[in-house]
C-alpha cells in the first residue's frame, strides 16, 4: 500500500498537553485540517501531569514546537508560567491555546469564541434574558464571560453540585466584570424546575452525559424545558446527550457541543498557522466518525 510520506525536516509540530489526554479528539480534528489545507504540520498528544508542567513548557520552547492546546487539569495552572496572556484568558482565568512566538509563550482562550460562534444565531433573543449555566469549572467561566461581554444577558443562574463553588464563581465575576445579577443554586433538580423553565438559555458545561455515562443528565424532569428555549451542551460524545434529547422532545432548540468544539479548534488553528480551518468539512467528518464509532 502506498502512503503519502508528507512529514519531513520542515514539518511543524503542534500538540496538546493535559492529564489524562486519551479522551481528546483534538488530534483527529487538527490533523484532518492540516491534511485538507495541505499544511506541513502534525498534531501530537502529550500526557503531562501537573508536576511536570513547567519542565514541559521549557521542552516545548527548546524543541521549537509551534503551539499547543491545554486541557484539564492544566488550563489554570499554566497561566503563571506564560509571558503573555490575552484579555479573555486573563478574565476567565484559564488558557486552552498557546502560541510559541520565537520562544515567547502567549496564551489564549479560544473556548470563548467557540461559545460565541455557537450562540451567535440567537444573539438578539439572548439580550436582556435570564440564562442558567450548569457547572462552575473552566468551561462555565468561558460561557459566563461570553454571556456577559457579547450577549448582554440580564441574569445568570449558576447551578452546581457544590453550591459553595457556584457562589465563589458568582463573586469572581462580580469582581472581574462588575456583573452582579448572578444567583447560585445547588444542583437539586426537583427544586430547579422553575429556574430551568424560566431561562431563555440553559448551558451544560459539565461532563454529565458524556460517554460512557450517557444516561446522566442535570435534570430528567420534562417540565424543566419549553419550546421557547435554547439548550446548549458542551459535551459532544455522544453528539446528542440525554439532556439535549429531552429538551428537543419538549420543543426546545438545541446546540450540540460538537459545534463549540470545532469553532474553538478553528480559532486555535488560525492562531498557529495564520490560515482558516475548513470548518464545515471538519464538522461533518467528526460527526460521521462519532456516529459510526
Structure description:
It is an enzyme of class 1 (oxidoreductase). InterPro entries: Aminoacid_DH-like_N_sf (IPR046346), NAD(P)-bd_dom_sf (IPR036291), SDH_C (IPR041121), Shikimate_DH (IPR011342), Shikimate_DH-bd_N (IPR013708), Shikimate_DH_fam (IPR022893), Shikm_DH/Glu-tRNA_Rdtase (IPR006151). Residues 124-195 form the Quinate/shikimate 5-dehydrogenase/glutamyl-tRNA reductase domain. It catalyses: shikimate + NADP(+) = 3-dehydroshikimate + NADPH + H(+). By secondary structure, the chain is an alpha/beta fold. The chain folds into 2 domains: 12-109 and 259-292, Leucine Dehydrogenase, chain A, domain 1 (Rossmann fold, 3-Layer(aba) Sandwich); 113-255, Rossmann fold. The protein has 11 helices and 12 strands. It has helices at residues 26-37, 53-63, 87-92, 111-119, 123-126, 138-149, 163-176, 189-197, 242-249, 257-273, 279-292; strands at residues 12-18, 41-47, 67-70, 84-85, 97-101, 104-108, 130-134, 155-160, 182-186, 201-204, 230-233, 253-255. The strands form 2 sheets. Strands 2-1-3-5-6-4 form a 6-stranded mixed sheet, sandwiched between helices. The chain has a 6-stranded parallel sheet with strand order 9-8-7-10-11-12, sandwiched between helices. The longest helix has 17 residues, at 257-273. The two termini are 24 Å apart. The mean pLDDT is 95.
